[in-house]
Each structure stands twice: as C-alpha cells, then as structure tokens.
Amino acid sequence: MHVVVNAAMSVDGKLASRRREQLAISGPEDFDRVDRVRAAADGVMVGVGTVLADDPHLTLDVTDRRVQRQRHGRPGNPARVVADSTARTPLDARILDDEATTYVLVVESAPEERRTALADAGAEMVVAGDDRVDLAAAFDQLADEGIERLMIEGGGELIFSAFDAGLVDELSVFVGSKIIGGHDAPTLADGEGFVEEYPALTLDDTERLDDGVVLRYTVDG
Ligand SMILES: NC(=O)C1=CN([C@@H]2O[C@H](COP(=O)(O)OP(=O)(O)OC[C@H]3O[C@@H](n4cnc5c(N)ncnc54)[C@H](O)[C@@H]3O)[C@@H](O)[C@H]2O)C=CC1
Ligand SMILES: Nc1nc(O)c(N)c(N[C@@H]2O[C@H](COP(=O)(O)O)[C@@H](O)[C@H]2O)n1
C-alpha cells in the first residue's frame, strides 16, 4: 500500500488550537488541492481524535472537473477509514453516512456492544492490535479490500504512529501564515516523539497557495 500524509499546519507546526476546534489553516486554493489528493486515493483516514473534534465528512466535491480527473473514472468517493481502538466513533458521525464505505479500525478488546452498534450503523469493522490499532496489520487488511493508495489527514497522534511504524511514503504539508502556539495544541507529529533516529525526508517540491506554501516530501527508504 502507498501511504500519503497530507495536513495543514501553522508556521509553528500546530494542526489546531489547544481547544482542538476545527480551524481553517488552509485557504480555498489549498482545500481544492486537498480534494484532489483525496480523489487520487482509494481511502482517506483520520484518527478518532479528529472525528470527535471535527466530525469530518471526508468526501469529495465531485462537481470539480479536476477532482473528477483524479478519480480516473472511479465513481463516487474514496473509502473513509478511522483508527478507533475502543470504538468511540459516535453513531451520528458524518463519516457513517452512506456516501462512502467506512472502515472503523478497532482492537481485539474493543467493547462488543460498540462494535455491533457501529456495524449496524453501516461501518465495516477491521480488528487489528491489542492496545492500539496495529496500523501495519490493519493496512494489510485494507489492501485486501482494494485500498492501494491511502491518504492520512491527521491528527498528530495518528500521523506520528504512521511514521513510527515506517508506513509513510509521502508527506505534503500546507504551512499557513499563522502562529497558533500552546503546549497543548496538536502538532503535525505528536505521540511519544522520536529520539536518536528520525524519519528522513527529501524535499521534492514547493508551491505557493493562498497565503502559505505547500511542501511536498518523499520519505526516505
Ligand atoms: N490541520 C489539519 O490538517 C488537521 C488537523 N486535525 C486536528 O487534529 C486534532 C486531533 O488530533 P489528535 O488529538 O492527535 O487525534 P487523532 O485524530 O490523531 O486520533 C488519535 C486517536 O486515534 C486512536 N488510535 C487508534 N490507533 C492509533 C494508533 N495506532 N496511533 C494513533 N492513534 C490511534 C486513539 O484513540 C488516539 O487517541 C484535532 O484538533 C483536529 O482538528 C486533524 C486532521 C487534519
Ligand atoms: N488540509 C486541512 N486544512 C485545514 O486548514 C484543516 N482545518 C484541515 N482539517 C481537516 O480537514 C478534514 C475535514 O474534512 P471535511 O471537510 O469535513 O470533509 C478533517 O480531517 C479535518 O481535521 N485540513
């Protein structure tokens, strides 16, 4: 599976404020670009922290011709994927509507009644891991379902884990002209953080959009 991380951060590396509310760091040009990155993917993934904070929909503007071109004739939306160890996704979350298939990744010990409720709400349940979702094992199962290209949008806990597991092939980050600040504001890569060994990136391209810049990297082998 080919994994692309795309997110927007402030100049000081924050994905949102300490209140973790939906915050437009991207402008209209970058949101259009994000739609095209989604359209090129078979699946669009977030962590449950993002579902709880933002209630995202993770679908496409299918009226946009450039989005249609990226779909290469594949109808509809890419699948939606949420890393949700203990099945906390609310049953009225927008990602559970019928506009795309939604995979909820949980661990073995996730409460049975929550798993059943999410399955009844239309989610495809994927079980991988004991404590937190084992991303490598879950991605193998998603690949069996035809997801060959996965876009991860965030948040910082999930992005860190994906890098930590060595699963990321590409990173695009929009740097908006804002300072958000705060020890408790989520950053591009949270989790435990790396020590001694750090993922190496090669900067492939930069593009000025809105009031910011998109940085595109390949993750070195
Ligand atoms: N500016 C941007 O581009 C974006 C910003 N955000 C922001 O990020 C914030 C949410 O980020 P976080 O709190 O870091 O939550 P997150 O969205 O990264 O979800 C983390 C949660 O996912 C679950 N999880 C299951 N398996 C996991 C694994 N292997 N690794 C990591 N997590 C796993 C855990 O319950 C964990 O607490 C929100 O404020 C949201 O607005 C989110 C996406 C994009
Ligand atoms: N790329 C990007 N730029 C921003 O400025 C953002 N605030 C976000 N947030 C993420 O976008 C997703 C919302 O999806 P829908 O529009 O509801 O489909 C979700 O992942 C947010 O956290 N992204």
UniProtKB/TrEMBL annotation:
Q: What is the originating organism of this protein?
A: Halonotius terrestris
Q: Which PANTHER family match?
A: 2,5-DIAMINO-6-RIBOSYLAMINO-4(3H)-PYRIMIDINONE 5'-PHOSPHATE REDUCTASE (PTHR38011:SF7), DIHYDROFOLATE REDUCTASE FAMILY PROTEIN (AFU_ORTHOLOGUE AFUA_8G06820) (PTHR38011)
Q: What class of enzyme is it?
A: oxidoreductase
Gene Ontology molecular function, alphabetical: 5-amino-6-(5-phosphoribosylamino)uracil reductase activity; NADP binding
The UniProt entry's sequence similarity note says: Belongs to the HTP reductase family.
**Keyword set includes Nucleotide-binding:** no
One GO BP annotation is: riboflavin biosynthetic process
> Where does the UniProt annotation place the signal sequence?
none
| The keyword Transferase is assigned to this record | no
Q: What is its EC number?
A: 1.1.1.302
List the InterPro entries. DHFR-like_dom_sf (IPR024072), Rib_reduct_arc (IPR006401), RibD_C (IPR011549), RibDG_C (IPR002734), Riboflavin_Biosynth_HTPR (IPR050765)
Note the subunit structure: Homodimer.
Task: List the pathway annotation.
Answer: Cofactor biosynthesis; riboflavin biosynthesis
Q: Which reaction does it catalyse?
A: 2,5-diamino-6-(1-D-ribitylamino)pyrimidin-4(3H)-one 5'-phosphate + NAD(+) = 2,5-diamino-6-(1-D-ribosylamino)pyrimidin-4(3H)-one 5'-phosphate + NADH + H(+); 2,5-diamino-6-(1-D-ribitylamino)pyrimidin-4(3H)-one 5'-phosphate + NADP(+) = 2,5-diamino-6-(1-D-ribosylamino)pyrimidin-4(3H)-one 5'-phosphate + NADPH + H(+)
Protein name as catalogued: 2,5-diamino-6-(ribosylamino)-4(3H)-pyrimidinone 5'-phosphate reductase
Keyword annotations from UniProtKB, A to Z: NADP, Oxidoreductase, Riboflavin biosynthesis
| Domain Bacterial bifunctional deaminase-reductase C-terminal, first and last residues per copy | 2-215
